[in-house]
Amino acid sequence: MKFHKYRLSFSLKVIFSVLILVLLILIISKSNHSHLTSFFSTRCLDYRQKDFSRRLNDRIVDYSNAARMSGIKAIKNNSELKARISQGELVKVKSGREYIVEDMTYSSPYVTNKSKILIDEIARRFREKTSQKGLRNARFILTSMTRKTESMKSLRSNNSNASANSPHLYGNAFDITYKRFKVRKLVLTNCDKKFLKECLAEVIWQLRQEKRCWATYEKGQNCFHVVGR
């Protein structure tokens, strides 16, 4: 008898919990219908986003000397890297709510303080612009930052396009992939991906127009190469 009463009590609790959950979903869907629709949608939406990636056409050879003058002295090895960090010339860039820092093989997740501010500003504008289209909590992925000269030698042996005078040596350059993003959405359609790419390109282009950076659309590396000015 006690067992049956327990099962009945348990069943009532389950039913009550389910009813509460359904009620909450209905309330949320009514107040935030557009966001829920966006989260579950698999339709290819026309965001009416203009293409900006091709406008990021600064040639590295044209600004590499200026980048060297505005950055730090090239770092040879880990000992020098640690020294620059302790001296405050470089600050660490960590993954968080705004962007993701990928594990790096040929570079270290450190940039000058000015470039860190630039990364944060790109993230702020990107997040604000994408959230207006229902893509909430969108984050881009940083794939490369400051490189040591000894790392550059290894990289050049594997990538013939890597420049011996790369701005990555001076602490004010970073790469953002335009192929991958983290978004609070169940399925990212091709339209979503294109919008995120060109939205990011537009934000970088705006900052370029404000003379805060140089930027290059690197098709071979699938990234936007950005250098703080």
How do the strands and helices of this protein lay out in sequence?
Blueprint: H1 2-31, H2 33-40, H3 60-70, H4 78-86, E1 91-92, E2 99-101, E3 110-111, H5 113-131, E4 139-144, H6 149-158, E5 173-182, H7 190-209, E6 213-218, E7 223-228
Parallel strand pairs: 2-4
Antiparallel strand pairs: 1-3, 4-5, 5-7, 6-7
Note down, in words, how this protein is organized.
The chain has seven helices and seven strands; from the N terminus they run ααααβββαβαβαββ. It has 229 residues and is an alpha+beta fold. The chain has two domains: 2-31; 53-228. The strands form two sheets. It has a five-stranded mixed sheet with strand order 2-4-5-7-6. Strands 1-3 form a two-stranded antiparallel ribbon. A hairpin with a 4-residue loop joins strand 6 (213-218) and strand 7 (223-228). Helix 5 packs across helix 7. The radius of gyration is 23 Å and the shape is globular. The model is unreliable at 30-34 (pLDDT under 50).
Kindly give the count of domains: 2
Number of helices: 7
Strand order of the largest sheet: 2-4-5-7-6
Order of helices and strands: HHHHEEEHEHEHEE
| Estimated share of beta-strand residues | 15-25%
Share of residues in helices: 40-55%
Largest sheet: 5 strands, mixed
Radius of gyration over C-alpha positions, nearest whole angstrom: 23 Å
Q: What's the β-strand tally?
A: 7
SSE-based structural type? alpha+beta
Runs with pLDDT <50, length 5+? 30-34
| End-to-end distance | 78 Å
